[in-house]
Structure to design on (502 residues):
């Protein structure tokens, strides 16, 4: 008698329930783990919040939507609210792929596509690091869903939803230009796409698209050079060339998916080895072409762009480029998908779901006792922000209005401060038009930098711009799990408001 695992039975009988269980379980894990164990937001989230706090129409990092939503989530729910927003984006991405898959390959195979997405690293470990790429992923997936409904199924009302989705995608990340270009080519190259252009809806949909993106376009007209300089400064590739880094990133992010596929095919297997089969109605040639095109071409175009420009820019996070990878594998697998060694595959899949957050937790708890690894998420942001805000309040009688100094510490302390002060980019003043050195002299502010010795000399950039600044005795902070790591020593100085200084 052949054993059939419980997950296969659920997949056959309750595929929609399997989808929601998987999507929500992953979301809960990656919301609770950072909320409980991170004492500071990961990656570039502090900088995102510093810019989002100003609600500008754009910045040197690109379009504003992710920055606005990040700040709103932080205002409502603090750091846990931001992690929940990131996971809402992942769930919405899964739902869009699932809904698209149901219309192309049926519900069961659509769930298989989402199960494979759990093995795509871009939707797991980096997901709490909310930013333009995380927000772009669901908008990209929704745009593909609406485009399929409008062109593939000729439901003309979806052109307007597609226009709004593409407009929001461009407000999230310039990577959306790749999808717009690919959709234009696909529409003109396919008979069904050309037929859809004979209707009035796609032409009318241009209007809501322009309405959505017009404010940012107006801002971009005067800030084009600033944005191009910011795009050219991505440090994600490290010592590798940007094109090599992107190729490696695309390969490594699919390693988990590849492992699941290899074990599910049973390779190498015995000739008479049996396997449960998940079947579907045959996929149409046009739908297969649609899936393959939009699964493979975004990454190919991204590689061409990076090779030609020599810069990663917004392509330093690959999540939007790989949203259809799982669905493409399922379409390629055929109408009858045998799943060999389903018990082993189930354990491996659960490992991809549970192991990454578990590794993060154990890493935070054990690494400080094993090696001198300074994890950014263990920085005591609240304690640092509270100390400096309270010190400024006691000395001047006013809330802390501005923070500047080190480009990593200043945004972190600003979000940890109860008053949420503005961050002045002393290292690049043109990138923080909402503040200036004159504002700090008039209203006061805090200067902070890493202290390496008791001499606590001012960094040269601060000394040249604020020659009268007097540094204070460095202050030390301890992490929640200190281990073998040295205490955090921060140099700092206070600029009193002009009225208080008199």
């Amino acid at each position: 008698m052949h054993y059939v695992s419980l997950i296969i039975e659920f997949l056959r009988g309750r595929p929609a329930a399997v989808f929601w269980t998987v999507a929500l379980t992953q979301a809960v894990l990656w919301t609770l783990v950072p909320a409980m164990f991170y004492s500071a937001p990961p990656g570039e989230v502090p900088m995102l919040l510093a810019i989002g706090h100003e609600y500008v129409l754009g910045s040197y990092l690109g379009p504003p939507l992710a920055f606005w939503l990040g700040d709103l989530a932080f205002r409502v729910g603090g750091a846990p609210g931001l992690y929940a927003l990131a996971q809402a984006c992942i769930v919405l991405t899964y739902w869009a792929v699932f809904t698209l898959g149901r219309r192309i390959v049926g519900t069961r195979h659509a769930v298989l596509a989402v199960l494979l997405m759990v093995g795509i690293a871009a939707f797991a470990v980096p997901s709490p690091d909310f930013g333009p790429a995380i927000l772009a992923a669901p908008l990209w997936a929704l745009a593909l869903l609406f485009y399929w409904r409008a062109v593939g199924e000729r439901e003309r009302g979806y052109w307007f939803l597609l226009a709004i989705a593409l407009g929001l995608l461009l407000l999230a990340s310039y990577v959306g230009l790749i999808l717009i270009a690919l959709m234009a080519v696909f529409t003109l190259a396919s008979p069904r796409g050309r037929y859809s252009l004979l209707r009035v809806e796609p032409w009318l949909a241009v209007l809501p698209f322009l309405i959505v993106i017009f404010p940012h376009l107006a801002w971009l007209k005067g800030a084009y050079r600033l944005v191009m300089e910011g795009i050219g400064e991505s440090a994600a590739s490290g010592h590798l060339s940007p094109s090599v880094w992107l190729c490696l990133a695309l390969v490594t992010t699919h390693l988990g998916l590849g492992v699941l596929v290899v074990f599910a095919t049973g390779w190498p297997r015995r000739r008479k080895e049996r396997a449960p089969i998940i079947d579907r109605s045959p996929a149409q040639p046009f739908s297969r072409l649609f899936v393959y095109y939009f699964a493979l071409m975004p990454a190919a175009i991204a590689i061409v762009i990076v090779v030609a420009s020599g810069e990663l820019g917004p392509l330093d996070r690959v999540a939007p480029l790989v949203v259809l990878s799982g669905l493409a594998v399922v379409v390629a697998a055929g109408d009858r998908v045998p799943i060999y060694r389903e018990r082993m595959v189930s354990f491996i899949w659960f490992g991809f779901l549970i192991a990454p957050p578990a590794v993060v937790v154990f890493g935070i708890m054990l690494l400080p006792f094993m090696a001198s690894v300074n994890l950014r998420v263990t920085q005591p942001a609240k304690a640092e922000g509270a100390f400096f805000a309270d010190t400024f309040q006691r000395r001047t009688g006013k809330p802390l209005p501005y923070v500047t100094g080190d480009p990593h510490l200043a945004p972190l302390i600003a979000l940890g401060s109860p008053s949420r002060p503005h961050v002045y980019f002393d290292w690049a003043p043109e990138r923080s038009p909402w503040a200036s050195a004159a504002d700090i002299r008039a209203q006061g502010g805090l200067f902070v930098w890493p202290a390496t010795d008791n001499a606590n000399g001012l960094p040269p950039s601060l000394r040249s711009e604020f020659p009268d600044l007097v540094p204070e005795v460095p202050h030390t902070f301890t992490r929640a799990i200190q281990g073998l790591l040295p205490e955090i020593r921060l140099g700092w100085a206070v600029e009193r408001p002009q009225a208080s200084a008199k």
